[in-house]
Amino acid sequence: MVTWRFIDSGLRSAAANMALDEAILIAHSEGKAPPTVRFYGWEPAALSIGYFQKAEAEVSFEELAKQGLGFVRRPTGGRAVLHDKELTYSIIVEESYPGLPSSVTEAYRVLSEGLLQGFRGLGLDAHMVTLASEEEKQKYATIGSSACFDSPSWYELVVEGRKVAGSAQMRQKGVVLQHGSILLDLDTEQLFSVLKFRSEALKERLMASFKDKAVAVNDLRSVTGQPPATLEEAKAAFRTGFATGMGIALEQSAPTAYEEELAAQLLAEKYGTDEWNLRR
């Protein structure tokens, strides 16, 4: 069994979290770090947007400031996610890793097997559905909204027909970075309060649609009479899930001094700057 590194890096700012994900990617590409699964949280809670989103057109920075929320542009695609009561994960592994498909969608399927097992470990009847038609894809997309879990082209993790995970992926320097949100609780009203819409009516309609298509772990557990999952329970379930789902051993570790140095540089020069965050 292959051993990967497991890092629980705790709470960091939005910009620092994105900087550390990229620092690990760089270190792995240089052969200075093994394949890595990282768990992390956000302090303060923050809004992240996808690489291709238009920040000033889609985000209410006045509302972010009023609510004391952080903000960052991710290096990956997808749409806006409010990171608060959640477990965030990242997977960093070389594209040439044995058994990892070359296509983005098939690689997502393989890397997300750990997510599937993690949700099941929390007592949820999770499935990975194949979105073979445009009609099926639309079922899990929130069209016209800046707020959405990123929808892979062909696969989606669902429980009772609703999305339970939002993930995005990028490839750089021969390395795959996939990261995403495992929402324990979801405050849809707060998420939509920090986004801009053409009208209040449109906002209300899209928010109602979003609620029908996305769901948090504890909402699902309450329906089945289970108590709310704590963050520690979620970490245990998903650490086991990734090991089982991907057939690997996870060895507890921490970012190296080199990775922390790279992350500090990326924070100062990239993720902590308006040039990056407001670039579109």
UniProtKB/TrEMBL annotation:
Residue ranges occupied by any BPL/LPL catalytic domain in the UniProt entry: 31-250
PROSITE patterns: BPL_LPL_CATALYTIC (PS51733)
InterPro entries: aa-tRNA-synth_II/BPL/LPL (IPR045864), BPL_LPL_catalytic (IPR004143), Octanoyltrans_LipM/LipL (IPR050664)
Superkingdom per UniProt: Bacteria
UniProt KW Kinase keyword: no
Record keywords, A-Z: Transferase
Keyword Transferase: yes
Gene Ontology MF, one: transferase activity
Classification via Pfam families: LplA-B_cat
GO biological-process terms attached to the record: protein lipoylation
CDD domains: LplA
Protein name: Octanoyltransferase
Organism listed in the record: Paenibacillus contaminans
